[in-house]
Amino acid sequence: MQKIFIGLFLLLLIFPLCFFNKEEISKRENRTLARFPSLIEEGGFNHKFGKEFEEWFADHFFKREQIIALHARIRHKINGRIENDKAFVGDNGWIFEKKGIIDVAPLSQQKGEIEYTAYILKRFDDKFKDKGIPVYLVLLPDRNKVYKEYWERYYTPKPTLDYDDEIKKALSDHDNIKIVSVENDFIRSPDKDLYFYKDDVHMTFEEGRFKIQEKVYNELLKSELKELTVFPERKENVYRINRSTFLSALLGKEGYVDKDVTYVDYQFPNKERYKESEQKSFTRQTNDEWGHITEVVYRKGFVTHPAPINKSFFSLGPCYAEDIFNLFKAVFKESAYIRINLGDNFGQDAKNHQINEIRKLFTLEPNSAVIIVTQDYFEYIEQALEE
Predict the structure, then answer these.
(1) HSE-up of 92 (CA within 13 Å, CB side)?
(2) Is 299:278 a contact under the CB 8 Å cutoff?
(3) Checking DSSP bridges between strand 31-32 and strand 40-41, what pairing results, if any?
(4) pLDDT band, residue 272 (cuts 50/70/90)
(5) How far apart are CA 241 and CA 354, in angstroms?
(6) What integer is the mean pLDDT of 61-65?
(7) What are the domain boundaries of the chain?
(8) Which of 140, 188, 287, 342 has the fewest Cβ atoms nearer than 10 Å?
């Protein structure tokens, strides 16, 4: 009898391993799943094997995707709401990730992270402040804060520092860093529901990204562009895109949807004078049917006629920084976009290229450039500073 019991016990342990999920990427969650850990690593035994195995098993157990989706449906039947351990649906169909609403770091940790961000930015600015090269820091809006009214009756807001106020205070001794904050513009706007997707963390192509362009342009009109004699016009173009639906995916649906979107942006009338001189592309792994796609992560160009502004312009940041680059590339004599949130799926070569491009900025001549940094992926900037 004892042998039968032991045999059944071992079978229960081994059975899940025989039918584990072999996928490397979760289409539902739009993320790379944990890899099977190595028992032996350089230098001896892997002391983290137990924890890493637990993470791998949690990502690969039998019928994982179906079980998670079933769990969400059961909770919906019980409490009448759609939610799981990672996300929930608030009012008016708005979806929110629990991270940042329920899972909130202690105030001391929030304070420490902001102070460290300020420390990196100050070191970065020290390369330019004595050269008369301004650094503009664009603070992007917090989606959870903008749409707080759609989730606060389900979960009591936890103590959270105001990022914009805290980073401004932390950088108050560096006058060369000009801060551009758009959060209050979003919160106070009667059209704020148009600025973010209900099912994704990104701003909309239709209005949200245009709002960032507009805000940055108006800020630069007070300083770098005050002598400008040409002005941008609002343009609308319709594109077919495979749009991310990250938040919806957390609740059991696919992570992308094909959709026609109206892309709104500013365009200067002399845009045809701009000529692209360099592009750098890298292939990254995706969670859709394409498997891998090639994406431009570095762009550089110049104006073929005398430019309205005889300076170089550099835009550092995620996709929103590319929107800013697209706006100003026809205004400054030369412009460059450096994406600094590539992620591991782009590979180390992509990261190294961007870090080297940031390092080149440190050799700029006095009064020769304008730099814009879009929050808040500063890993590459930090590595560039470690020469």
Answers:
(1) 9
(2) yes
(3) unpaired
(4) confident
(5) 26
(6) 58
(7) 19-62, 111-228+267-385
(8) 188
